[in-house]
Design brief:
43% helix; 13 helices; globular
Length: 394
């Protein structure tokens, strides 16, 4: 098999060497409990607070507004539940129709249990939120509005500022799932009116199993976990010091990259240009201007996406049909269908997500293998179609 080409960075990223090195002491000799009152424990507390400052700086927040969690899913679920508990007189949850499953399923579960009513706001064919429909959906019954900052499958960026201003004007708690955005594009909670925001370390070269929830200090909040009162009584439980340290350093490194990077979008654009030149009937799903610089979702007409992924896996190309959380699912992408496309198009679409480490040689290898696999599948499909027609005529 040829060298591995990893183009699934929206699923997870390789932990940076510097991050891993920074974590190791806290997995070894520096094992003290950060809640302990002696010096051995206090060193862990200082490490946590340093990381809190690093994460806060990445999203333009204050350190006391950062709560460490086990990852994006916990942050997302906590934000939705906490917002509902603060306003029991309101029951409506408003989401875009292209939210991640961690938000979508949590909302549907609350509705199924009779705790809430869910309204899904449509998006355009390009995947952008319908702001007029969003405004119409926010009423006196709405307890929380949730909008994904950057879609995990298409990379399309939402109009966060405009949507937040509308929510603020209706006195609606506004939370953004920024798991895919943080570390890839500038994210500022000071410039955008959000009450809460979720992020996850392993999406920008930090460790898995660690994330954070930004909570505006003026916003209402009710904790999900109770116990020892860690995280200023907002998330009890002994902190995962090593992972928090890793998240902090990954955040600091990401901030430096975002400020200086000019290559990610150019690499993605080259990938799309050369791939579409070789396969001219293919199309890019989603808004090609307002999107993450690393994400490309391609529609391969007449090709079964699952079959394409199998051939690419055999060729050492790692990519995805969409969300990593949908692995094993035979259902067509909910996100592509929400954009108004057919189930057939959803089944024939594949996501490629690059990192800053993706180089020219890997792009060329990937394009070569994708084109080869696509043509092979079309030959097979053509043979099957011919046999079916011949059988019917006979």
């Amino acid at each position: 098999m040829k060298d591995l080409v990893y183009l699934d960075n929206n699923a997870t990223t390789r932990i940076a060497d510097e991050v891993l090195e920074a974590m190791l002491p806290w997995l070894g000799d520096q094992f003290g409990n950060p809640s302990a009152g002696y010096r051995f424990g206090k060193s862990a507390r200082r490490a946590i607070e340093t990381a809190r400052e690093q994460v806060a700086a990445l999203i333009d927040a204050s350190p006391d507004e950062i709560v460490f969690t086990s990852g994006g899913t916990e942050s997302l679920n906590t934000a939705l539940r906490a917002a509902r508990l603060t306003r029991p007189d309101r029951r409506r949850l408003v989401l875009s129709s292209v939210e991640h499953s961690a938000v979508y399923e949590a909302a549907l579960s609350a509705e199924k249990e009779g705790q809430a009513a869910v309204t899904l706001v449509p998006v355009s064919e390009s995947g952008r939120l319908d702001l007029e429909a969003w405004a119409d959906s926010l009423d006196d019954e709405t307890v929380v509005a949730n909008l994904i900052w950057a879609n995990n499958e298409t990379g399309v960026l939402s109009p966060i500022h405009e949507a937040g201003e509308i929510a603020l004007g209706r006195d609606v708690y506004f939370h953004s799932d920024a798991v895919q955005a943080v570390g890839k594009v500038p994210v500022s909670v000071k410039k955008n009116p959000v009450h809460a925001l979720s992020l996850s370390g392993h999406k920008f070269h930090g460790p898995k199993g660690i994330g954070a929830l930004y909570l505006n200090r003026h916003a209402r909040f009710s904790p999900t976990f109770y116990g020892g009162g860690q995280e200023s009584n907002r998330r009890s439980g002994t902190e995962n010091v090593a992972a928090i340290v890793g998240l902090g350093l990954a955040a600091e490194m990401a901030q430096a990259r975002i400020e200086s990077d000019t290559t990610a979008a150019a690499t993605r654009d080259r990938f799309e240009r050369e791939l579409l030149e070789a396969l001219p009937d293919c199309l890019v799903n989603g808004d090609r201007t307002n999107r993450l610089p690393n994400t490309s979702n391609i529609y391969f007409p007449g090709i079964d996406g699952e079959g394409l992924l199998i051939l690419l896996d055999e060729a050492g190309i790692c990519c995805s049909p969409g969300s990593a959380c949908s692995t094993g699912s035979v259902q067509p992408s909910r996100i592509i269908r929400a954009m108004g496309h057919s189930s057939s198009r959803a089944r024939s679409s594949v996501r490629f997500s690059l990192s800053l480490a993706t180089d020219t040689a890997e792009i060329e290898q990937a394009i070569s293998e994708i084109v080869k696999a696509a043509k092979k599948l079309r030959v097979v499909l053509g043979d099957r179609t011919t046999r079916v027609i011949s059988s019917r005529n006979y």
